[in-house]
Amino acid sequence: MKNQRVLVLDFGGQYNQLIARRVRECSVYCEVKPHGMSLEAIRAYDPIGIIFTGGPQSVYAAGSPQVDAGIFELGVPILGICYGCQLMAHYLGGEVTAAQEDTAREYGKTKTWFETDCRLFDGIPEESITWMSHGDYMAKVPESFRLVAHSAACPNVGICDEARGFYGVQFHPEVNHTEFGLAMLRNFLYKVCGAVGDWTMGDFMRSSVEAIRAKVGSGKALLALSGGVDSSVAAALLAEAIGDQLTCIFVDHGQLRKNEGDEVEAAFSEWDLNFVRVNAEERFLVKLAGVAEPERKRKIIGEEFIRVFEEESKKIGAVDYLVQGTIYPDVIESGSDVAAVIKSHHNVGGLPDYVDFKEIIEPLRLLFKDEVRALGRELGLPEQLVNRQPFPGPGLAIRVIGDVTKEKLDILRDADFIFREEIALAGLDKCYNQYFAVLTNVRSVGVMGDGRTYDYTLALRSVTTSDFMTADWARIPYDVLDRISVRIVNEVRGINRIVYDITSKPPATIEWE
């Protein structure tokens, strides 16, 4: 039986994938599709509701993303967010213009008032805070709509035509800064679209196992296993689906954390699967020699991973499929037709043009990080593996700013180990979602033992987040930071200065490169 589905149409806004995450939090399945999706494809998708996302452009500007006007005749409820709200108004007889400097233009946290007899705002307070980010506004609201929310600067923050199930808001309910945003989305899903909440991780696991078996058939699959959460869950899912038709190749590319290669091999030695470790540090270092630009590093690592897998597949006989632990944020940050490339992930935008496999299977491609963890639990993986900290596929190569050398990697490995060890000793390892060290390309003067030093600056990074799409920097206690700093400069040669990154995402990303 097919799950109910909601369709999220992408107009290029920075929070678009967060909308999908919030919908799934409400136990309703959804996918993000390009705004130009045809009416035939939309009908085939058979959504119970459609959400128009935000976007950076103006609906009245030449070349701005549009939709087929027939979408409003499908009889499907639609929620427009920011640009999506303005687009709806633009198509249905309203007027959208640029806001004047002194009226209607709003950014950031904004006090907002709601008409709570509107189904979208049912059960929420009449006054609360929303997150605004719009420079245009609706000068004229379509005739069939009524105003159901306003702010001090903007009289038409929310509109609705409840007879047709059309709703629009100028703010972003998907971000945490909108106090009752999740409740609004839940109202749209359950009180407008008639959702029953049939999306569960158990359903996903069962349908994925069936789909993988149908695709692979009697063929063989090779899984790129890093030992991280994503590839480990992918390994368990494929093992469940095709058993010994799967071979897991663990490529130790010399960019792993301290002792990590041996730990991964030990962990998977207890599993009933074909496990092969390839020690490839030297070949990766040769390829990366002299390369400082982060996008080139990622692409070099992505291509070299593929070449190693191709070579190993030939040793074990014909392999039809390459399996990767790609997840939704990887895909998002690697860019879409309307969204910018933030950084090419080695397993998405970093892939070479030619891959010597019949097909690449990415069973986690539509899951967010916390959903991957939930799937791991569903598959029976141990908690210490499911809750392991995220670690980028390219590894420490993108935590060494500038060119990558064995010496720099060893310095970073030792410093990062101390940082993580002290966080655990302080009992804070469950408090922060990700924490790691970055070896910057900055060298500065210091003094040690009455002598002058000219060594590297090490940056520490720690964040708290619920979905890794947005993140806040962690408030590590000063005494803990002090212990970390003292230990690193005393125990790790080549570092004489420690700094702490206090930037959230956005504007920064969690990783530095």
The proportion of residues in beta strands is 15-25%
Percent of residues in helices comes to: 25-40%
Biggest sheet strand order reads 2-1-3-4-11-10-9-6-7
**Morphology:** globular
Taking all Cα atoms into account, the compactness measure Rg is 25 Å
Instruction: Compute the number of helices.
Output: 14
Biggest beta sheet summary: 9 strands, mixed
pLDDT under 50 segments (min length 5)? 335-352
Amino- and carboxy-terminal Cα gap: 43 Å
Query: What's the pLDDT, averaged over the residues?
Result: 88
Tally of strands: 20
Instruction: State the secondary-structure class.
Output: alpha/beta
Structure in words:
By secondary structure, the protein is α/β, with parallel strands linked by helices. Helices cover 31% and strands 23% of the residues. The chain has helices spanning 16-25, 39-45, 83-91, 181-192, 201-216, 229-242, 260-268, 281-288, 294-315, 328-333, 369-378, 383-386, 406-425, 478-491, and strands at 5-10, 29-34, 49-52, 78-81, 95-98, 106-114, 127-134, 136-140, 146-151, 158-161, 166-169, 221-224, 246-252, 274-279, 321-323, 359-361, 434-448, 451-464, 472-473, 495-500. The strands form four sheets. It has a nine-stranded mixed sheet with strand order 2-1-3-4-11-10-9-6-7, with helices on both faces. The chain has a five-stranded parallel sheet with strand order 14-13-12-15-16, with helices on both faces. Strand 18 (451-464) and strand 19 (472-473) form a beta hairpin. The longest helix is centred in the middle third of the chain and has 22 residues, at 294-315. 44% of the residues are buried.
